Amino acid sequence: MTPPIPRFKPKMATFRPPRFRLPKARSAFLKLFLLFLVWTVIEAHISHYRIARTERQAKAKGVLTAPTRVYIASLHWNNEKILRSEWNKGVVELVKTFGADNVFVSVYESGSWDDSKGALRELDQELEKLGVPRKIILDDETHKDLINGPQQEEGWITVPDGKRMPRRIPYLSKLRNLSLQPLRELAMNGTMFDHVLFLGDVVFSAPDVLNLLKTNNGDYAAACSLDFSKPPSFYDTFALRDSRGQEHVSLTWPYFRSSKSRSAMVNAEPVRVSSCWNGIVAMPASSFTGIRGLRFRGIPDSLAALHLEASECCLIHADNPGSRTRGVFVNPAVRVGYNRLAYDAVHNDPTSGGGGGGSWLSLTEVYVGLWRSRLARWLTSSWFAERSVRARIGRWGRGGAGRVEKGGFCVVDEMQIVVQNGWKHL
Length: 426
Known about the structure:
Oligomer: single chain
Order of helices and strands: HEHEHEHEEHEHEEHEEHHHEHHHEE
Number of helices: 13
Number of domains: 1
Distance between the termini: 118 Å
Strand content: 15-25%
Protein name: Glycosyltransferase family 69 protein
Helix content: 25-40%
Structural class: alpha/beta
CATH topology: Spore Coat Polysaccharide Biosynthesis Protein SpsA, Chain A
CATH architecture: Alpha-Beta Complex
């Protein structure tokens, strides 16, 4: 028999898709990007943990451990609502915390058209019962009286329509200096204080103040809270400057453009800044006494005429030699509000929608804040606005012998005047 012829099955060719390889540069970029995302996640969690830890420590520090003498200074204008609802009670709580013999209360109210005077009379009666030394001035001069009264040699400016109007900052500086006059008189008679506590028209508590006084272990030329009117945005943009003298990069946490200030805020540490005010401020009382004691001021009228202005609350730090040696700090553990809702929103109160987990910021807010700050620093610059201001200050300085403005970092492109119902920009 003839053997069968073998049949060969042809081998089917297997299809193998080509291997996709990223270019080396693109692959390296992707790895770096993923590494950056991982670091951002880690950074956010670490920051959230540190904020929560600082909150716990702040609660432990909010107690009085040694006798402390405090001079309380405050200005008020049309603040009846918060005086009656919060502020008066806060001051009484402070007095009871420090002891009536360790406190002096100095209040200057100026021309309110609400019943701020009545509210402060009620406070005066409460302080009388507690035996608190005090000076509460209720001034009848309104803004209208000031505008229509005799013009002063300083503190007035010609506005674009040709009228002469009082400048807001010299006016406020005058009132702040009047609120400190009893401190100077007491010092001349041998009565001394450890701290001057400037209290704005804010909601605060005694533990807030005790925490503020212990900022940086009590070593500072000035220590400020953070203030909020409409959280999460902070309020006092006019006075706050970071460690490099620059304005904020973002209204929300972590606020600052300079790496030094921003890093401290992210790590929930006292933040070194060039200037701050932000609701409540503590400064050594010795800064304001003696022949060389500090005085609040505005920039010269001749400089303001170039459409420039600076907060008296920033200039005081520029004028203070201690600002450079001892430092000016924002304490992020001390937060105050211009109403109760704002105050509660920035505290870890379960009924207020606070951050939770012991932190006044939620983890989401930390994530968003870090990225918002990063993008703002990448995509914006303060150089152009600062250059314009510096150029005008330089031109002013060359226009007269001895013209120097130490608080150049405080100056902004604004003109502010007093008007009948408050103040306004021009």
